[in-house]
């Protein structure tokens, strides 16, 4: 009779254990979300350096009026590659890398839902980058990152560069789509016990929204570039006006993807900022629900505004008005986020560590981009500003201020978790200062360039008005910005070997990734803690403190944990 | 610091005279619609400066005021529903105000201005009615077809040809120029913007906003210049290798001078046409004899 009251003992029978791959093969065949995350981040950062170098060459050419340093063809190739690289090979995969590494850790999972699919995503992304950059050895694309038809059709761009661009869109597109499905499945199904939707970290909310946007928008660009490929090589006429095709069809399809893509790049950065501010203000996030809701709302509205990229096309005014109003509406949840961030800092005790500096710089710079976005949303005003350097300035404040500074915030915040070592604060602050000043000097003046009549994507300009002066200021700024990036590269290289050991929780942060050692073990959690609030680490620290004060109760290794379910073999 | 510098720069620009006229506002002054766009931009700019200073100022103040100090205890609050609703509504109100202002200005920006009494008269070839896509101007106006091609603009003065009469559908006989457009002063000029190869964008900043020249579509804009002057601009949409060099000039002449210029142009074009016809005839003769030799 006693046997029936026995607790069942978990048993795992293993007859064969594969030896883990070591060294290079280990990295090439890994399905560990953390290793894939690192691969994503390192590869994306390499592309960031490449894309940045292209930008510096563009700025050098524009440093002097009527400069002939770079030929017009090369110039067009450079800005096409710069834009494409930064968007498809840097920001989006960088966010995928950060999501890969931290989403499972933050929600208390041991990996993503589909680890092998995850590996495929990464290698497809690499393949996209390789195919695209292989075109350097033949003819790189020169039709801009928006590849507008008919310029990108075979009549006007007969060389294979545009095809390389199309394959890049397809390969990185499939990669992002699979990755997005993976993130969604992981977040929906694999959260720690007690982690309800209202206890989901805001970075995870942003990755969830990023995934949804990619799932909605990517099939559209996939179809659009497939039609372009068919037009170019198989004799169809989807975009050929002389055979009943439509040029505006491309612009609509492209921007139906292109505008949500902006939020794909910016929302995860917002998520990072929302994680970092409470940690360094030593105060809970202000208005958690409003921030989470505004993330989703921005994404939804972002799907309705693509027409604001088409304000100068022959499109009925009523449609322009709709796009204008929808674009205005986005400013509301975006403003709510910024106010909530200030609310988080308000009455806090702010520690000026590098991650906080980057996060605050991001808010400051993004605010400028957000405000100029309202100018561009008013379509009669956009008739003047569209396709000028004003737009170049706007989008760089959004994407450098938002995405790049967000990514650098993440680098400084999470480097100790990934490597187990701290980055240098002095170098970090220097890097942040240089990048902040560099961004302002490079791009503030570009508003004036646009207002003074300089269109974008021109390889040279006459020295009328103050064009040369403005351009020189901008070129100088680009080198300051580059120096700031370089300082972080040096900082990372130095700290990998010699940085002070971080320990599991150097910032006294709030989320679960700080529960595990730095770097985390392959299985992440031996025991998954039960989540009781938005800030589980705060609860755990408090509990540890309480138990260590009562000497008769020995503090166990795992606090508020479920029964250990990981069996070592 | 950098932010202060930026503010200082903006302040200089606001109070500086003409030297920095296009430092923080778009170009204007050539045509009333450009002025109205600039006006709408200015209103937005004032609101934007208030928002910018408000947000960045509050953020900077917060950072300084609540920096870590001995004995400061961070207040553990999770939000404030009233405050949050307040600033959501506040942001919405600013944008609603902006939308209302835009709608108020929209009609006048979209409606072409009426030609002045000193403009080109109907007797001299200006049109009065049209079935065009743009709101037809009230009063006399002329229509110029702007054709984008890699990498030059062609202007066809619709209805102004060699004896083909006004409003003819046959543009082959209409007067045309490349690169340099001439228009009469005080006359509403309607532009019918098309493209024959890739997408271009027509833009003379002083004369109003851009319109894309999209192959397969017709786009419309207009301007009215009151005083004789020349304005420059360039293609604003990437159209290939020569994009940066695809420029344009618009010169306004008093109607009488403009008509004189037009007559000279017509004579030139007539002579060119005659020379072309003679050349073609000669070529036909030669190839005709060639065809006999080699059937």
CATH topology of the largest domain in chain B: Immunoglobulin-like
In CATH, what is the class of chain A? Mainly Alpha
Kindly provide the radius of gyration of chain A, computed on alpha-carbon positions and rounded to a whole number of angstroms: 25 Å
Count the domains of chain B.
2
State the separation between the terminal residues of chain B, measured CA to CA: 84 Å
Descriptive notes:
The complex is a heterodimer of chains A (569) and B (295). With 569 residues, chain A is mainly α. Chain A contains 15 helices and no strands. In chain B, helix 2 packs antiparallel against helix 3. The termini of chain B are far apart. Chain B has 2 domains: 2-68 and 79-110, Helix Hairpins (Orthogonal Bundle), CATH 1.10.287; 122-279, Immunoglobulin-like, CATH 2.60.40. Chain B is elongated. Chains A and B meet through helix 3, helix 7, helix 8, helix 9 and helix 10 of A and helix 1, helix 2 and helix 3 of B.
Features:
heterodimer; A: mainly alpha; Cytochrome C Oxidase, Chain A; globular; B: 295 residues; alpha+beta; Immunoglobulin-like; 2 domains; five-stranded mixed sheet
Quick structural overview:
Chain A has 569 residues and is mostly helical.
Secondary structure layout plus pairing:
The complex is a heterodimer of chains A (569) and B (295).
Chain A (H helix, E strand, L loop, with lengths): L22 H6 L4 H30 L9 H36 L7 H20 L26 H29 L12 H32 L13 H35 L6 H15 L14 H29 L8 H24 L1 H7 L3 H31 L5 H27 L15 H32 L37 H14 L20
Helix pairs in contact in A: 2-3, 2-4, 2-14, 3-5, 3-7, 3-12, 4-5, 5-6, 6-7, 6-8, 7-8, 7-9, 7-10, 7-12, 8-9, 9-10, 10-12, 10-13, 12-13, 13-14
Chain B lengths: L1 H14 L16 H34 L15 H30 L30 E9 L2 E10 L12 E5 L1 E5 L3 E8 L4 E3 L8 E3 L5 E6 L4 E6 L12 E7 L1 H39 L2
Parallel strand pairs in B: 1-5, 4-10
Antiparallel strand pairs in B: 1-2, 2-3, 5-8, 6-7, 9-10
